[in-house]
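Example record used in the benchmark description.
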Amino acid sequence: MASDTFPVEVGLMFEGERIRRNDMQLELGGPKADAKWEIVRVRPAGDVVDGEIRVLGPDLDALAPGMSHPVGVLVEISGEKLEEDIEGVLERRIHEFLNYVEGFVHLNQRHEIWMRLSRRSFEKGLNSFRYLGQVLIRLFRDDLPIIEAMQVTWISDPDTVREMLDEAVSRYETRDARARGLLDEDVDTFYGCALCQSFAPTHVCVITPQRYANCGAISWFDGRAAAGIDPKGPIFGIAKGACLNEKTGEYEGINEIARKRSMGEVERVSLYSAFEFPHTSCGCFEGIAFYIPEVDGIAVVHRGFRGPAVNGIPFSTMADSTAGGRQVSGFHGISIEYMRSSRFLQADGGYGRVVWMPGEVLERVREYIPDGLADRIATEKDALSVGELKAFLEKTGHPVTGRWKPDSGREQDKDRKQEKTVLRLSELPIRAGGITLVLKNARITAERVIIERRPDDPRRRT
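Model output (structure tokens):
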């Protein structure tokens, strides 16, 4: 897009750009906004006015600077060859294309979107949603010629955003439900998504019938539709090949594509484990499954959870360890839809190993948790520390307690501390004296691991 017709530059070079809070003009969506969403809908030809851009509510130049604002993005398209199967895939392209805009950052998806506009680009003239609408229409039409007409509506009126949220969420659920009856063994082809490689160069999201994309926006059916209409695009087929380990979900074809796309950084991938060569993550995952060694269990925290999780660490801090295309044993980016799969953490014990999650997530997946187990999984109402969690698990008789050694008072705790723990890391940086030593594919065996905050950390508890 030429700079003389647009206030800022638009191009691939701006993908991966970061905008810190001190440098932003304003924020759209994100954790502080109570309502936000984006959705693509395929409409009959007569229902779409090609090139139309509407703004319902205050424009960018009328929104309070330095604040977070509710937002909705409605993209409506038509075309003879377009089918509803493509909607979810095109929603992820919103993420891609808006990140081409200088001084504008888009993160996450669906009703978890988070966008920031830099003060510098705003002062250059990027002061209207209409410019962002122009970007979407131009790039969508250039990239996907099967779109014959397209219109974009930006909603910034808080009441309207909230009113339309339920409709958007209902549409997401309809798409998700369609894929739940298909099993991984029923198909010969999985799909890979490289839309986020600008943020995580060694990451490829593997999409199977029973393992949604980490972002929660792309199902196996979506992947098939995307690869069909754009064979050379960022979503592509993966011949799954021989199954090397049915329990962990390791396939010959996935390993091959992981090695190729990561330039050898990632050699093996397990679809159903958070420990054994876990699937890599970009940064748009809906939740994190993380290991709690004190109870030998796995907890889950989602992006919308406020405050520290049961291990005392907030989502944002754990996300830094999980993202970036790394394989970190015990930290695993996931989608909420994957939690509805019978393959969920299959190699690690499934829900029999899950000990804590926010109440909101528990209710969303309750019907997919084995009978009698949901009420034995703690939420923030039951435990906000590892000590409280341990007491809850013992009280409710959670299956994970069967993994513990027989109680022998302090001797039990002593024995646990002395148990060997094995961590597998694809990359471990060690920094000292101005030198960084990076251990590749390290395997570390330790008699004891102690994790504590630095004495000068302001978050340290007294």
